[in-house]
Design brief:
Four copies of one chain form a homotetramer. By secondary structure, chain A is of the alpha+beta class. The first copy, chain A, folds into two domains: about 10-140, Urate Oxidase (Roll), CATH 3.10.270.10; about 150-314, Roll (Urate Oxidase), CATH 3.10.270.10. Helix content of chain A is about 25%, strand content about 40%. Chain A has six helices and eleven strands. Chain A has helices spanning about 45, 55-70, 75-90, 195, 210-230, 235-250, and strands at about 5-15, 15-20, 30-40, 95-110, 115-135, 140-155, 180-190, 250-260, 265, 280-285, 290-295. An eight-stranded antiparallel beta sheet of chain A has the order 2-3-4-5-6-7-8-11. The first copy, chain A, has a two-stranded antiparallel sheet with strand order 9-10. The longest helix of chain A has 18 residues, at about 210-230. The first copy, chain A, starts with a strand and ends in a 17-residue tail after the last strand. The interface between A and C is large, with 95 and 95 residues. Strand 1 (about 5-15) of chain B pairs antiparallel with strand 11 of chain D, so a sheet runs across the interface.
Chain lengths: ~325, ~325, ~325, ~325
């Protein structure tokens, strides 16, 4: 019975790359958290400590900073793609590369009604995300691109019920026709193959520069559906959010949504002689419900390693 | 040589009070984190375990929720004041009460260009704060009110230098005429006595309902000065921010600013044959500079216990 | 082109279950963080909002607390298994259930050299983990059990080098024959099929009550190998740690290790006229290397859904 | 009505200094988080941006690292004192300096029953702290030294009651003769003047090298009293803990304790036909009680700026 090396990957996590564009009087800023992860012919590094095929994680960090200078002008999806393609194309032992980018957004500070040319204020706690995975293969590299967001915190003060659920001997929850529904949305969407790995055959929405337009649109759709759907359960809300995003965006093959149900408990004010018709709540920390679903096209191409982030390894 | 009880205080920290206003078709939301802390005749609780004068922290929590129903409609400063006055006036052993409130702001979700009546999205990571301290005394209670904000993250991509500083044998820092200046501002301002404890003698800005107007104005001024001042040091920037706030708001007696200098280090790209004229930076986590100052009127009334938060106790 | 529901799961995350055993003069404590996640016939909840097959997450929480009373006496692996089996066996729509448990360990407070019978102090920041997955199938349920630990922070002040690595145009790192090696180990090991789903055919180590003995042994082995292996790279250290665990424990089919390389940078003290022969370091926060690998038997049974935690969903 | 600069201070926070002692075959490690804060003649830096009297925070960081080489061998109290004395004595504009040090403790990894000479594992989540404040004055500098700990998490499964408390119209809490008492202790003790600023007149316990002995003793006393005192309230427990520390250590003038009451709520299992005689609890996150008290000698010297940490500024 032999003991063997199984899956392995390595990289540099959380390089905090800040790129300032100062070509004109108005500066721009890109504030990124970049993680790279490589797979390939690295068994010797584990088995014998031979590092001759190992590109140091320090080099991966350097590359992220250097590429921010040379290739940082576009959307984070393009930056991630360019980096991932570089590792696979230019570093021989690398068979596949994953680049995950978080972007923190900044607004211009408003002074006398106009945006300041070089002073900024952080725009919300929501984070825009992108991931690119490039994997070498027989007929050339395959590519997957994920765009997304997380920490989008939303709440409905009515228009949410939870009734008619399954009961067993451990069920004590009362049914409710009107509750507060609050969550922090994580959403990630995977583009169809045409967009990522085939520059000659882009989907109808146009050139790669449109990643940002898709992001803005999907974000708007997710918010609008969260607001507009009369919720019978968070499951149904998530489905409707994801379905609307796919209906509007043919270039998206799949969207995954993960949403903690941040419970707001109605406080019993009766002991103090007060009524509480849905007005005063305790926002609880833990435990929380956690609802997760994927919405996809029935002809979506295979996801391959798209969802295999470093966080999922162990 | 005797061993005696010194300063003591106790309370309930971080009650997560959410108040929904649903009187009309448009709901409103107040999302608060409330901490109460009492001082007074509580020595027996320590010395002998006699609880007969101790109002349980559970009761303090209940009171915060009940008052959110009865007195929650105004600004957080009024809510804090009302709670603090209650503890001092209505609970015999309490000699002074401090109520600290954090408010998380929510925006309406935009749907078809209009704000949704009952669906909200968290508005940024910035937190509005208020503290009220009421202390019983010979001639009636004294009152202090602090308003403030924290986690206001700002950055200037130019317009900041750091030169001409003191050098000793441990100094290696190069002077710079152009750097990135980034910080996360904590600001708290203390109102003059008239505003808080003397309803008959309010300052010129008007009734208590104006707390929010002052908050909005001070926030705007702090941002505008951060943007507008050509910075010779973070110290000077903070002074100018605070001074402008006091100049515009006679009702403010003192403002305190605490600002970590979130260092952005220029990355050396020369080894890769690339120039880096202020374009690519590494945003570092630790260590950070920490600059703190108070700006006040020369006739400011005594601060009393205004700045003695629970965080400062030990 | 149809839009369909893809993978989905839901559950209650982070129920903070504390179980006190007080049958004799010496109390014992189990301090747990329990997360449950169910898959099954839940499409209607998404597609139409029909909750009739949905066991509320509140019920899952109740079940976790009730089972802590009835079945909480054993190891966390048994508690997780019992809960997971219950959901699959007793709740009709559930096709598979995953239960993840974190355990916080407590030591008895030492008083006059003896452990106190009912006063405890938290034992370190390291967390013991267990996961059980039960999945219904044709021939009865399949079962997977993972045990593990995380936040095991270790450091070697010598006995670690990093040399002979691949260089490209972005490589600036100097080779080193002696560095500080520090990491925070996450390890999870998967038991062979016999242990989990086949009570009649337990592996040689004995009854289920031995989970704790395996945990203690694997932890000891991981630490000893981290200490004892002269490290040529973190990759090699992890492999040797995992290999030793499998060599000693035939009941383990696979172990996965995830280890951030917590960089300690030698500080340049030359400007101050001081030498620094490996004595003064700056411990950096970000970025960090992240090294991950699996070590497994060549005849390991399929992992199935064992590694598909909720954190990995999106 | 003039606007003036009030209190101000600045420094470098959270330098992560790691010092390895490798003089013999057995290495030792000191793992520190060092923050420095200076007060003095710095008004011009605020008012006009003139930095000529400002020692950069970068220099303060350098000094912390350099002193770790030159003066790092002793206890953290001595290291903090030496640093603080340096800033006041050697940097002309500095009138007072505060140095706060957190120490993370490491144990040797046990291999075959013996401690490994250069491999370590982090010892618990508890942090040892020290602060030194040196303030220039007419007759030479005054000195204050604080030692302490935080994140010492403790729990009693019985031996704690809470009864006979004050009730008002908002009180719903039931009295209890047996509850779980859990907290995370922050303790800081202030030495009498003789110890810190007067090497010629050290207290009876001996030379400065005894800081560690006092730390170990106070920690042991705090734990023993937490365990041994039948608790009528957390207030009483804290008093007894502090009193015992002072009774055993004449060199301590004052000890301050801050302790969140980490509530453990008995879970109602009756709906499931189960009794719950103090066995199954929900450990809640927020809100929490927060109990704080000082225990001091009636002839304690003035505390001066000892308790004015940067965290307490605004």
């Amino acid at each position: 019975m032999g003991i063997v090396l199984g899956a392995s990957q390595y990289g540099k996590a959380e390089s905090r790359v800040v790129r300032i564009y100062r070509d004109g009087p108005e500066h721009d800023i890109r504030d990124l958290n970049v993680s790279t992860s490589l797979r390939g012919d690295f068994d010797a590094a584990h088995l014998t400590g031979d590092q001759s095929k190992v590109l140091p994680t320090d080099t991966q960090k350097n590359t992220a900073y250097a590429y921010a200078k040379e290739h940082g002008a576009g959307e984070i999806e393009d930056y991630a793609l360019t980096l991932a393609r570089h590792f696979v194309a230019d570093v021989a032992p690398v068979r596949s590369a994953r680049v995950d980018v978080d972007e923190y957004r900044w607004d211009r500070i408003a002074v006398d009604g106009a945006g300041h040319p070089h002073a900024f204020v952080r725009a919300g706690q929501e984070i825009r995300t992108a991931s690119a995975v490039v994997e070498d293969g027989e007929g050339g590299p395959s590519t997957w691109v994920l765009s997304g967001l997380r920490d989008l915190v939303v709440l409905k003060s009515t228009g949410s019920e939870f009734r008619g659920f399954l009961r067993d001997r451990y069920t004590t929850l009362a049914e409710t026709a009107d509750r507060v529904l609050a969550t922090s949305v994580t959403a990630r969407w995977r583009y169809g193959a045409a967009r990522g790995d085939n520059p000659q055959n882009r989907p109808a929405i146009g050139p790669a520069g449109d990643w940002g337009a898709v992001y803005t649109s999907v974000r708007r759709i997710l918010l609008a559906r969260f607001a507009g759907v009369h919720s019978l359960a968070l499951q149904q809300t998530l489905w409707e959010m994801g379905r609307a995003a796919l209906a509007a965006h043919p270039e998206i093959a799949e969207i995954r949504l993960s949403a903690p149900n941040k419970h707001h408990f109605l406080v019993d004010l009766a002991p103090f002689g007060l009524e509480n018709p849905g007005e005063v709540f305790h926002a609880d920390d833990r435990p929380y419900g956690l609802i997760q679903c994927a919405v996809q096209r029935d002809d979506a191409p295979p996801a391959g390693p798209a969802w295999e982030s470093a966080a999922a390894f162990a």
